[in-house]
């Protein structure tokens, strides 16, 4: 009975730590999502054409690509916690510059600075959470980061709608609130026990594990397992080793398909696309709020499903629904999305797509990346995952409006439907089941060559 009480207490501490760290995801979501509403005001203010809109939108993605690559060696050297705190400071600076930008050039620079922070958080927050969480709750805890991301997106959509008669500068400026919370909260949290062990600080690692698990015997056993699997910090070239390659293929593939299946095309440009086919500005923004609500609900469901169904099974069950939703959406645009009942079918198809895609690929991307790599190159592996995500995101954000102009909305969404089908095939072939296994057990499977048999 006493042991159960101790477990609950330890879990409470882990939940608190994961919740504070996941505030980085809230900033991630808010700063990437707010552009969809702000762009409707920025475009006439700065006389932006299609290319200008895409550059302003994608600047944060370019910064995120640089930020996630920069974070890996720094987080290995300085620690996961300090890197998250540094990212919070960068969020604050970028938010202030964006809010007072006098012209489009400064705004693009500010969005790039915000992107640096977003990239850092996408790389290091899931790793930090995965390294503190017990195996039985690791999926739910890491997905808390993604839940914070989509909550940030929803908040940005609501703020965009409520501030549509105000300035876009206020939309950007409100992002400073969670940035301050993240910095202050992280200053009170412990360092990653696995990072401490990797640095040879075994007693400090034991102290943290004992605080997290509230059971000295369990903490010592976990530390012994970490030490038994421990290698020195590996260089980037370690990711090219044949025994690590299955982890690279699985994690990078999920990251790539998470983006090229179209979710950020909908996220960034939904109001612009819907306004362009006849929806009023207010109606287009309300459609985005519905999408945001759907994303939060599906991510909350996914946070349960990854530890109830498993990561692989969740992906295989939901991705086909995303493909079907996009096919319906393409058909509606081909027939005339704003005519009669087609308007409602169009909106429903977008919401269903968000539920199926976000509840599967967007839930799994940071979880799979944080789980599958060995400790010696986990930070660098996660950087590769994040870099893949942001490179594909950059491609999407720079081409979506151009694709809509060239192929039409129907052709664009039909293309994304086909990519969802390819994602299903990839998951079936290359993505293993990591549910219920410790990080050290997953690493053992990699070394034994049985990683692809985890089902």
TrEMBL record:
GO cellular component assignments: plasma membrane
Residue intervals of the Major facilitator superfamily (MFS) profile domain: 17-435
Pfam families: Sugar_tr
KW NAD (keyword) present: no
Primary location group: membrane
Protein topology in the membrane: Multi-pass membrane protein
PROSITE patterns (UniProt xref): MFS, SUGAR_TRANSPORT_1, SUGAR_TRANSPORT_2
GO molecular function (one): transmembrane transporter activity
Keyword Transmembrane: yes
Protein family: Belongs to the major facilitator superfamily. Sugar transporter (TC 2.A.1.1) family.
UniProt protein name: MFS transporter
Organism, as annotated: Komagataeibacter nataicola
């Amino acid at each position: 009975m006493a042991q159960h009480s101790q477990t609950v207490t330890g879990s409470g501490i882990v939940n608190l730590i994961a919740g504070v760290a996941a505030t980085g995801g809230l900033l991630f979501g808010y700063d990437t999502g707010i552009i969809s509403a702000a762009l409707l005001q920025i475009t006439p203010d700065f006389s932006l054409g299609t290319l200008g809109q895409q550059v302003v939108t994608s600047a944060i993605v370019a910064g995120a690509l640089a930020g996630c690559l920069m974070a890996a060696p720094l987080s290995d050297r300085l620690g996961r916690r300090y890197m998250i705190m540094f990212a919070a400071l960068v969020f604050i600076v970028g938010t202030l510059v964006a809010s007072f930008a006098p012209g489009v050039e400064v705004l693009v620079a500010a969005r790039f600075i915000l992107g640096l922070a977003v990239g850092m958080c996408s790389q290091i927050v899931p790793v930090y959470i995965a390294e503190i969480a017990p195996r039985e709750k690791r999926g739910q805890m890491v997905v808390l980061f993604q839940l914070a991301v989509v909550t940030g997106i929803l908040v940005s959509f609501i703020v965009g709608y409520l501030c549509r008669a105000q300035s876009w500068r206020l939309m950007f400026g409100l992002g400073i609130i969670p940035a301050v919370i993240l910095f202050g909260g992280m200053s009170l949290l412990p360092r990653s026990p696995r990072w401490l062990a990797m640095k040879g600080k075994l007693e400090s690692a034991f102290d943290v594990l004992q605080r997290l698990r509230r059971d000295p015997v369990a903490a010592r056993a976990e530390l012994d397992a970490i030490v038994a699997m421990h290698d020195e910090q590996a260089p980037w070239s370690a990711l090219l080793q044949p025994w690590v390659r299955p982890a690279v293929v699985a994690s990078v593939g999920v990251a790539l398909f998470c983006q090229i299946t179209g979710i950020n095309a909908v996220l960034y440009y939904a109001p612009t696309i819907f306004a362009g086919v006849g929806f009023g500005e207010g109606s287009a923004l309300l459609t985005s709020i519905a999408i945001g609500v759907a994303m939060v609900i599906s991510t909350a469901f996914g946070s349960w499903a990854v530890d109830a169904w498993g990561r692989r099974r969740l992906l295989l069950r939901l991705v086909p629904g995303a493909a079907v939703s996009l096919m319906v959406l393409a058909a509606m645009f081909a027939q005339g999305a704003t005519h009669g009942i087609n308007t409602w079918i169009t909106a429903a198809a977008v919401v269903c797509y968000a539920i199926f895609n976000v509840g599967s690929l967007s839930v799994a991307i940071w979880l799979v990346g944080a789980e599958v790599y060995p400790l010696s190159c986990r930070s660098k592996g996660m950087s590769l995952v994040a870099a893949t995500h942001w490179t594909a995101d950059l491609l999407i954000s720079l081409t979506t409006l151009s694709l809509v102009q060239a192929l039409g909305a129907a052709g664009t969404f039909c293309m994304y439907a086909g990519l969802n089908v390819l994602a299903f095939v990839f998951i079936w072939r290359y993505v293993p089941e990591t549910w219920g296994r410790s990080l050290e057990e997953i690493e053992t499977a990699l070394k034994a060559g049985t990683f692809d048999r985890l089902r």
